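Consider this:
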Amino acid sequence: MTQTNYLDMDLLRFTTAGSVDDGKSTLIGRLLYDSKSIFEDQLEAIERSSKQRGDGYVNLALLTDGLRAEREQGITIDVAYRYFATPKRKFIIADTPGHIQYTRNMVTGASTANLAIVLVDARHGVVEQTCRHAFIASLLQIKHLVLCVNKMDLVEYKQEIFEKIKADFQAFASKLSVPDIHYIPISALNGDNVVDKSTRMDWYGGSTLMYTLENVHIASDLNHVDSRFPVQWVIRPQSEQYHDFRGYAGRVEGGIFKAGDEVMALPSGFTTTIKSIETFDGPVTEAFPPMSVVMTLNDEIDISRGDMLVKPNNQPEVSQDIEIMLCWLNEKKLQPGGKYGIRHTTKEARCVVKDVRYKININTLHRVEDDRTIGLNDIGRVLIRTTQPLLYDSYSRNRFTGSLILVDEFTNETVAAGMII
C-alpha cells in the first residue's frame, strides 16, 4: 500500500458500549441504514421480519441480530466487527456485549479503537455500567469518547434530562484521562441526531453523531515522536533475482523512518543506516505508523524476530521487572508466583508474577488493597519479571510498544491483557 492510500483511507475504528437494552443494536442499525451502507435485500428482509413480529416500524436492531442467533446456538462471539463507509471515511465498529461479565470483551474491542461510544438510557441516566465502560476506555487510552444519551423520545425530548445526565457524567469523567468528550442527545429508534439533525431537539446546538464520527481528528493520536520498528520477519529470498537481498519486515509502531536515517538495533546496540524502505507497491522515501514495510540496511548486523530498530538518541525502556495494569480474561484466577508466556510487540518470552500491588474497584475507581485475588474481568496493578529484557514504552506514550498479553503455557489461551505503566 502506498503512502497516499494511507492518507486517503482515513479509517476510524470505534467501539460501542452500554448496558443491556440501551439500544446499541438499534443505533448501529440506524448508522448503517441512514448512511445507506446496507443492501436492499437486507433492508427488505428486515422490513419483512419487522412486519411478522408486529413491530409498527422498521426494526433496525434486527440488522445486528444475525449474530444473536449464533450466540443462542452456543457459538461464542465475543466481539462483532462491522464495516461501513461514507464518502468522507471508512469505519470499523467493534460491537461488544453489554453484560457486566463481559469486561474482557470491551477490553478486546477497545484495544484498537480510536473512539468509544458509550450509550446511556435517558430514563435511567448514568449507571454502574456507564462508569465501567468509560473507565476501561480511559485505561486503554482511547482519546475520544462520545456519550450518547439515547431514547430521548421516551422522555419527551426534554433538555433538562439531557443536561442532568451530562453533568452527572462530567463529575465522574473528571477522574479519567480522556481529553476529548462529546455529549449528544439521540433517539436511535427515530433517527434523531444520529445521521440527520433532530427537528424535535432544537435546543441542542451540537453536531450529529455521524458528523462527529466523520470529522473527529485522530491523526495526532499516533506517536510520531519515538521511532519504533519491531522486526517481525527477516526476508532472505535467496533467489537468482534477489541473490543478496536481506530485508526486515514489520509494522512501524511509532515515529518516522526515512532512507538514510541512522538506526540502532536493539538489544545488540549496533548502529547502521537505512538503505531503503520497500512496500508491496515499491520503494517509499519514509515510513510512519501504521505502515507495514520492509527495511534494508547498509551494514550486515545480526537482527532477528523480536528485535527492534530505533533512533540512537531516542531509545525505549529496557527491563526485566515491569509494572503493568492487567485486565484478567480467564476463568482461572491469576496465580501469584505463577509462570506465564508473554507476547510483547513481536517478541515472545516467559514471565513470573512477582507481586499483586492492588486491585481496582471499577465502579468507584478506588484501590482495593485488602483483596488481591485477580479473577475474570478484574483489573489490577501487578509486577512481573520476564526471562528476557523487554524493549518498551509506557502505554500512555505508545499503545503498541506499551501493551502485552499473558498466555497460559499449557492451554495456550490468552489469560490477560496488560498495559505497561
Summary: The longest helix spans residues 159-173. The two ends are 34 Å apart (CA to CA). Confidence is low (pLDDT under 50) at residues 1-9.
